[in-house]
Design brief:
single chain, mainly alpha, Four Helix Bundle (Hemerythrin (Met), subunit A), globular
Length: 198
């Protein structure tokens, strides 16, 4: 819980540091501060989940705040890095990728609200595609942040890897959205069959 709160508190700091270089070359020294802060937030996410399972210390508030912190971190980073002035024209995250990332979260949110309204309950558990999506989205943000400096060292290699990540993140986001829809439909049908058999 404490690590989740730390992530939520560091998010505006990360965004502020990114905005310090607005209008300048996307290789400013503030960018490396942003990389460090983002890295700390990503690591605390993994550490938080591990400690909660290991010490069996889960709370209802923690189970709500943890995914919220993840979504805020990824969504704000992906949107910010879709602008030329934040990522550089050659490295900015394309709008279709941003749309796929956001679209999946919108589908999950609307499906959750819909199930709650119609059935009265919903069970949301992490799915393999959802976890893979989060991993690749975090990787995409981190690589986008350091890509200009990597390209100076390795002449164009970061741009090539970024292109592959754009396709990967987009495809996994769409697949995860479909997977969550199927899970939601299954929960809806199960709830209806329970009502009919009662």
């Amino acid at each position: 819980m404490g690590l989740t709160m730390l992530r939520l508190l560091l998010l505006p700091v990360f965004l502020w540091v990114m905005l310090l270089d607005a209008g300048h070359e996307p290789t400013g020294h503030h960018r490396w501060w942003a990389v460090g802060i983002f890295g700390v937030m990503a690591l605390t996410d993994k550490l938080d989940g591990y400690l909660a399972r290991r010490l069996n210390q889960t709370s209802k508030l923690g189970t709500v705040l943890d995914p919220v912190a993840d979504k805020l971190l990824i969504a704000s980073s992906v949107v910010l890095l879709s602008f030329d002035w934040a990522a550089g024209a050659a490295y900015r995250i394309p709008l279709p990728v941003v749309g796929a990332v956001y679209g999946k979260d919108v589908v999950v949110a609307l499906g959750t609200v819909g199930l709650l309204a119609v059935v009265g309950r919903v069970s949301i558990a992490p799915r393999l595609l959802g976890k893979a999506g989060t991993f690749f989205q975090l990787l995409l943000v981190m690589l986008t942040l350091v890509a200009p400096d990597l390209d100076r060292l390795l002449s164009g290699s970061a741009r090539a890897v970024l292109k592959a990540l754009w396709w990967t993140v987009g495809a996994i986001s769409v697949a995860a959205a479909i997977d969550y829809v199927l899970v939601g439909v299954r929960q809806f049908r199960n709830a209806k069959s329970v009502v009919r058999s009662a």
